[in-house]
């Protein structure tokens, strides 16, 4: 395993990270509906019965048979079962959502009906039937949603409608964060040559938005700047995490121990450096575990904005793959101002979207070590290698991560 590598194209890096996650994804598990929000369907969701399962009234009124007038013979409410209508000139009072009795030929809205002195009902049915027939929404066994669908409240409601108590979902990847750098402070303002650690609060929060679980105990740092400390911290984190993110140490300087630590742990690179600015260098490696499955380590640069770009470039696709989700396609937005290129590298430039999400304006304060621009942006516009973007150009846009289960 060599620490030297030709930088991978940014789009190719995203694809490779996603494929690595797909290959390592675990089996589906069945969980109660109450615990499935934000997870991912591990198998297709199919209708367990016809929907609706029985003819269902769409109105409050009367279920009638034969010509008017109709003599009421009973009532059927939602949740009840009415006796069949067997004789012409009969009807039953019916509520919205109730089962339409066998033999009914039409439904009359209560507000469009009347009763004579003898209690008989008259009225004119509307041209379109006022009930839902079995299978109007779905037939038993029909696939409603494919595997890989993010589970949100609408999916939970559909599953409940079908009769599910539990649904098959992918396991949530467990993530950990190791922060490298003796120069970091964990509290108070920066000063005297030391800077505040901003990635411990930032990275876990966005890992959760990408669907991973991150316990407080899984965030550690600063890890001492020695090879022995790095190896020990990574080895411990890998015992309980599927994905370990590290910050800093991705170069080959005198206190950059990540590459030697990976070599000692028997890791192999999935991606070693990506041709993107900011964000250079970053890496994704896999480490064999005792159970025969791979664990992953993502090396994020120490500068905050670069770390975020590594997060969306490598970690987000990896987590999508581990959960059986597709790699999200990037939509196009119109630039309101020019964005320079970065030579042979892809340039990810922070930008804010207008209210309709169609136009993007580059923001200020976008140095690799800065977070001010990130806090005012909605994502990154993508300028391909050896190009520049002008105002009015349509360019790809990579959004910042959303909450689990939320659709862009």
Automatic annotation (TrEMBL):
<dbReference type="InterPro" id="IPR036425">
    <property type="entry name" value="MoaB/Mog-like_dom_sf"/>
</dbReference>
<dbReference type="Pfam" id="PF03453">
    <property type="entry name" value="MoeA_N"/>
</dbReference>
<feature type="region of interest" description="Disordered">
    <location>
        <begin position="113"/>
        <end position="134"/>
    </location>
</feature>
<dbReference type="InterPro" id="IPR038987">
    <property type="entry name" value="MoeA-like"/>
</dbReference>
<dbReference type="InterPro" id="IPR036135">
    <property type="entry name" value="MoeA_linker/N_sf"/>
</dbReference>
<dbReference type="GO" id="GO:0061599">
    <property type="term" value="F:molybdopterin molybdotransferase activity"/>
</dbReference>
<dbReference type="Pfam" id="PF03454">
    <property type="entry name" value="MoeA_C"/>
</dbReference>
<dbReference type="Pfam" id="PF00994">
    <property type="entry name" value="MoCF_biosynth"/>
</dbReference>
<dbReference type="InterPro" id="IPR036688">
    <property type="entry name" value="MoeA_C_domain_IV_sf"/>
</dbReference>
<keyword id="KW-0500">Molybdenum</keyword>
<feature type="domain" description="MoaB/Mog">
    <location>
        <begin position="176"/>
        <end position="321"/>
    </location>
</feature>
<dbReference type="InterPro" id="IPR005110">
    <property type="entry name" value="MoeA_linker/N"/>
</dbReference>
<dbReference type="GO" id="GO:0006777">
    <property type="term" value="P:Mo-molybdopterin cofactor biosynthetic process"/>
</dbReference>
<dbReference type="InterPro" id="IPR001453">
    <property type="entry name" value="MoaB/Mog_dom"/>
</dbReference>
<keyword id="KW-0460">Magnesium</keyword>
<keyword id="KW-0808">Transferase</keyword>
<comment type="function">
    <text>Catalyzes the insertion of molybdate into adenylated molybdopterin with the concomitant release of AMP.</text>
</comment>
<dbReference type="GO" id="GO:0005829">
    <property type="term" value="C:cytosol"/>
</dbReference>
<keyword id="KW-0501">Molybdenum cofactor biosynthesis</keyword>
<comment type="pathway">
    <text>Cofactor biosynthesis; molybdopterin biosynthesis.</text>
</comment>
<dbReference type="GO" id="GO:0046872">
    <property type="term" value="F:metal ion binding"/>
</dbReference>
<keyword id="KW-0479">Metal-binding</keyword>
<protein>
    <recommendedName>
        <fullName>Molybdopterin molybdenumtransferase</fullName>
        <ecNumber>2.10.1.1</ecNumber>
    </recommendedName>
</protein>
<dbReference type="InterPro" id="IPR005111">
    <property type="entry name" value="MoeA_C_domain_IV"/>
</dbReference>
<comment type="similarity">
    <text>Belongs to the MoeA family.</text>
</comment>
């Amino acid at each position: 395993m060599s620490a030297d590598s030709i930088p991978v194209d940014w789009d190719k890096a995203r694809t490779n990270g996603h494929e690595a996650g797909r290959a390592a994804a675990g089996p589906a598990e069945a969980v109660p509906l109450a615990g499935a929000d934000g997870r991912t369907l591990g198998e297709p969701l199919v209708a367990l019965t016809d929907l609706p399962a029985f003819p269902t009234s769409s109105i409050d009124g009367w279920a009638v048979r034969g010509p008017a007038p109709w003599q009421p013979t009973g009532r059927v409410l939602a949740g009840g079962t009415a006796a069949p209508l067997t004789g012409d000139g009969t009807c039953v009072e019916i509520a919205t959502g109730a089962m339409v009795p066998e033999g009914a030929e039409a439904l009359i809205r209560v507000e469009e009906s009347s009763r004579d002195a003898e209690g008989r009902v008259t009225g004119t049915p509307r041209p379109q039937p006022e009930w839902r027939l079995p299978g109007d929404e779905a037939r038993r066994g029909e696939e409603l949603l494919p595997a890989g669908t993010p589970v949100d409240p609408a999916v939970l409601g559909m599953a409940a409608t079908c009769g599910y108590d539990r649904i098959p979902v992918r396991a949530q990847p467990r993530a950990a964060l190791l922060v490298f750098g003796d120069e970091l402070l964990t509290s108070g303002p920066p000063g005297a040559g030391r800077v505040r650690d901003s990635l411990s609060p930032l990275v876990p929060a966005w890992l959760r938005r990408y669907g991973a679980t991150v316990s407080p105990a899984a965030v550690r740092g600063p890890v001492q700047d020695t090879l022995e400390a790095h190896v020990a911290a990574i080895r411990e984190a890998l015992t309980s995490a599927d994905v370990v993110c590290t910050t800093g140490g991705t170069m080959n300087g005198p206190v950059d121990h990540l590459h030697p630590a990976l070599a000692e742990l028997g890791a192999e690179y999935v991606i070693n450096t990506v041709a993107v600015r900011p964000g250079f260098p970053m890496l994704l490696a896999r480490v064999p575990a005792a159970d025969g499955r791979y664990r992953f380590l993502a090396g994020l640069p120490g500068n905050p904005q670069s770390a975020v770009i590594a997060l969306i470039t490598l970690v987000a696709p990896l987590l999508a793959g581990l959960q059986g989700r597709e790699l999200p396609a990037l939509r196009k937005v119109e630039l309101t101002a020019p964005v320079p290129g970065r030579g042979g590298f892809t340039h990810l430039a922070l930008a804010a979207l207008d209210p309709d999400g169609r136009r993007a304006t580059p923001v200020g304060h976008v140095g690799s070590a800065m977070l001010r621009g990130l806090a005012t942006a909605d994502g990154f516009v993508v300028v391909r290698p050896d190009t520049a973007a002008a105002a009015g150009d349509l360019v790809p846009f990579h959004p910042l991560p959303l909450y689990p289960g939320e659709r862009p």
